[in-house]
Amino acid sequence: MSFKDIFKKSFLEGFAGSEITIPTVVIALAVASAIALYIFLVYRVLTRKTFYSKNFNISLAGITVITTAIILTMQSSVVLSLGMVGALSIVRFRTAIKDPLDLMFLFWSISVGIICGAGLAQVAIILSIIVTLGVLLLNHFPVARAPMLLVVNADAFDIEEKILSVAKEFSKHANVKSRNMTQSSLDLVIELRTADGSELVKRVMGIDGVVSASLLAHDGEATF
Q1: Among 104, 124, 173, 222, which is most buried by a count of CB atoms within 10 Å?
Q2: Which residue from 56, 97, 74 is spatially nearest to 18, judged by alpha carbons?
Q3: Mean predicted confidence (pLDDT) in 129-141
């Protein structure tokens, strides 16, 4: 037997892994399933109803359990673990994550699956509690009032100063985000913060030449 064969045999025997019993598998998958259900409920409560995706939420729960099963399988043999790493390396995510909060939940699900598969269920439970408390705390952390968008359509192009003067009466800072002008019309998008949006729209509509005025609230960036 050559030195190469001896080294190969010693390597495989040294990293052969422990035998995974049925009770171990059942307990790990049960804990992972319980935490997956918890993540499902937390995501449903915290996510805005307008952007809620039930399919994505179900995927989060499924990823947790599947990852746990993969980690349990990889513990049984180093050869099998290397083969699974190679097989999983061809997996690519084709769906773009639109909300950064979804990305956090995705990593949370994968992490819980890995931790439960490694037999550290208590760490997964503590992690889930800390993440939930952190998200709830930061979600209710007071921030500045979100800006609003005043969209004005007019059939005269020389009344921009009048519109801006009225907007500045209701807001300290009124910035023109978009200006579309023709020979006989004017479209303005003004970003501002105001506590009396109803009165602002009424005053803008009272300007001669204004056809319509809309005040839109948004919680992110808008491009026109």
Answers
A1: 124
A2: 74
A3: 87
> Which residue has 């990305």 as its token pair?
103
Q: Alpha-carbon dihedral of residues 76, 66, 97, 123, nearest 10 degrees?
A: -70
**CA 55 vs CA 58, 60, 112, 167: distances in Å:** 5, 9, 19, 43
In angstroms, the CA 57 to CA 74 distance is 26
Instruction: State the DSSP string of the chain.
Output: --HHHHHHHHHHHHT--PPPPHHHHHHHHHHHHHHHHHHHHHHHHHS-GGG--HHHHHHHHHHHHHHHHHHHHHHH-HHHHHHHHHHHTT----S---SHHHHHHHHHHHHHHHHHHTT-HHHHHHHHHHHHHHHHHHHTS--PPPPEEEEEEES-SS-HHHHHHHHHHH-S--EEEEEEE-SS-EEEEEEE--S-HHHHHHHHHTSTTEEEEEEEE-SS----
Q: Is the dihedral of CA 171, 177, 181, 185 positive or negative?
A: negative
How does residue 10 score in pLDDT terms, banded at 50, 70 and 90? very low
Q: Please classify residue 70 by burial: count the beta carbons closer than 10 Å to its beta carbon, then call 0-12 exposed, 13-18 middle and 19+ buried.
A: middle
The residue among 82, 65, 132, 78 whose CA lies nearest residue 105 is: 132
Distance CA 57, CA 62 (A): 9
Tally of CB atoms within 10 A around 131: 18
What is the per-residue pLDDT across 55-77, written as a single tens digit (0 to 9) for each?
A: 888 999 999 998 888 888 877 66
